[in-house]
Amino acid sequence: MSDISRRGHGPLESWLRQAMARLTGSTGTPRLDAELLAAHALGMTREEMILRLPDLALPSGLDGLLERRLRHEPIAQIVGQRDFWTLTLKVTRDVLCPRPESETLIEAAIDHFCEGREPDRILDLGTGSGALLLAALDLWPDATGLGIDISAPALAIARENAQATGMADRAQFRQGDWATGLSERFDLILCNPPYIRDDAMLPSDVAHYEPALALFGGEDGLDPYRILSLRIADLLMPGGVALFEIGFDQGESAANLFRDAFLDVVLRRDLAGNARCLVVTRP
């Protein structure tokens, strides 16, 4: 019998059981969600909370946090942060919640810059929270980067994240419409554009809480790729690579836009086996 079982259940443990029961059916991770909410209310990490669980008092405000989650507000927005790669980043309704699938782009970048090669200049188009750019800068501490986004509120979050992660001196952020006005060439280009069809039905925690500007990419979801496929060759340094996140069913349709622009394209899949990243290089 575990120490927790022998000592009985404290008020926080009882709350966690009840919260898990209420969350079951409205989220695929009821236990994790309940624990993250409780840890946030306590002002500690989830791991620390679990270790001290039998001795912890019930913090105030927990039921309010639970009600927000039951209304399908994303956990990241409730607690105000999300882990991505090796970083913990601030998240609000002004930016997409960074997702593990997007780490496929960082893995592809690592594979490209192998055997002692490193990128010097990095561009993140549609930077949002700055997740992709800051993850790359964390990997290559001698590199500098530029993040572009059309949303001023998103850029404010990205700058906060750069400051919090100690990379404000290497990460510059600028408001802009994709690559318009850029004349510089980059070794690494990262881009997670809006690629969802305009008529797609989305889960409530996405449709009601994340910015439409960062979600929808036109009638077929490919509008951003149509624009970017015509500009990327002019932005890439020789030997550089551009990495684009795509929807699971866009492996051929998005790739063909870049091939039509006389670029080389390789499809990379995420850990679930879904098409996730286009690896684009100049011939």
Mean pLDDT reading:
94
| Cα radius of gyration in angstroms | 21 Å
Order of helices and strands: HHHHHHEEHEHEHEEHHHEHEE
CATH C-level of the largest domain = Alpha Beta
Number of domains: 2
Largest sheet: 7 strands, mixed
- Secondary-structure-derived class: alpha/beta
Characterize the structure shown.
There is one protein chain. This protein is an alpha/beta fold and 283 residues long. It folds into two domains: 3-71, Helicase, Ruva Protein, domain 3 (Orthogonal Bundle); 84-281, 3-Layer(aba) Sandwich (Rossmann fold), CATH 3.40.50.150. It is 39% helix and 19% strand. It has helices at residues 3-7, 11-23, 30-42, 46-52, 62-70, 75-79, 103-112, 131-139, 152-164, 204-207, 223-229, 232-235, 251-260; strands spanning 81-84, 87-90, 121-125, 144-149, 171-175, 186-191, 236-245, 264-269, 275-281. Strands 5-4-3-6-7-9-8 form a seven-stranded mixed sheet, sandwiched between helices. A two-stranded antiparallel sheet has the order 1-2. Helix 2 (11-23) crosses helix 3. It is globular and about 65 Å long.
